[in-house]
Specification:
Shape: flat
Low-confidence stretches: none
Number of helices: 10
Number of strands: 0
Oligomer: single chain
Distance between the termini: 73 Å
Helix content: 55-70%
CATH class of one domain: Mainly Alpha
Largest sheet: none
Structural class: mainly alpha
């Protein structure tokens, strides 16, 4: 017998098609019936491979997390490792900006995501952060990164005061002084990440004192 024209259905194929659907049409377009139609099957057939919508969402989260790099936490100081990981985190979500709204509002249970968090918190713990501060540090960093990922996916011109520049002279002048408008988001990310990490270093020093 020859090969089937339609690839065999599997959990991995379902999850990857779900992410492709979200990338192409947005989180609001994601549903199991839409996913089934994209796969050319009936919705009940999905349940032979996935437990339901929540399982698909966590599978999508796993795919995005697998694009992040935690290797720096193995042998670099926590602040340097956090900076390296932060860049890969932002870049991963910038490649899938439509997934942010979906993943940021659902409970996290993906083993891959939990393992990543364990790696990050392990480095913070070894760096001397008190256990009661670990979740706050992680959450504050993630909030900044998700916002930065959305900003990177936004148009280069996000603020346009040209219609009423006289009413906002400081804003108009500040925007005109940006040397590379196409790199606005990248420059904002670098500035914010540096400030965030420097602030965390200072907070840890205060906590130790």
């Amino acid at each position: 017998m020859g090969r089937p024209h339609i690839p065999l259905l599997s959990t991995d194929r379902i999850i990857r098609e779900a992410l492709a659907l979200i990338d192409a049409e947005g989180a609001d377009a994601f549903s199991l019936p839409r996913l089934a139609a994209r796969l050319g099957i009936r919705t009940p057939s999905l349940y032979h491979h996935v437990a339901g919508r929540a399982a698909v969402v966590e599978g999508v989260r796993r795919l995005v997390v697998e694009e992040m790099d935690t290797s720096a936490f193995a042998d670099r100081p926590w602040d340097e490792a956090l900076t390296a990981w932060a860049r890969s985190y932002r870049d991963a979500f910038a490649r899938h900006p439509h997934a942010i709204a979906l993943l940021a509002t659902t409970t996290i249970s993906s083993p891959a995501t939990l393992a990543m968090y364990e790696t990050v918190l392990g480095a913070l713990d070894r760096g001397g952060w008190p256990s009661e501060r670990l979740v706050a540090v992680l959450t504050s960093v993630e909030a900044f990164l998700l916002g930065s990922a959305l900003d990177l996916a936004a148009p280069p011109l996000m603020i346009d005061p040209s219609a009423d520049g006289a009413a906002v002279p400081l804003l108009a002048a500040a925007l005109d002084s940006v040397p590379r408008k196409a790199a606005r988001a990248e420059e904002a990310f670098a500035t914010g990440l540096d400030a965030l990490v420097r602030g965390l270093v200072a907070q840890l020093a205060e906590a130790r004192a």
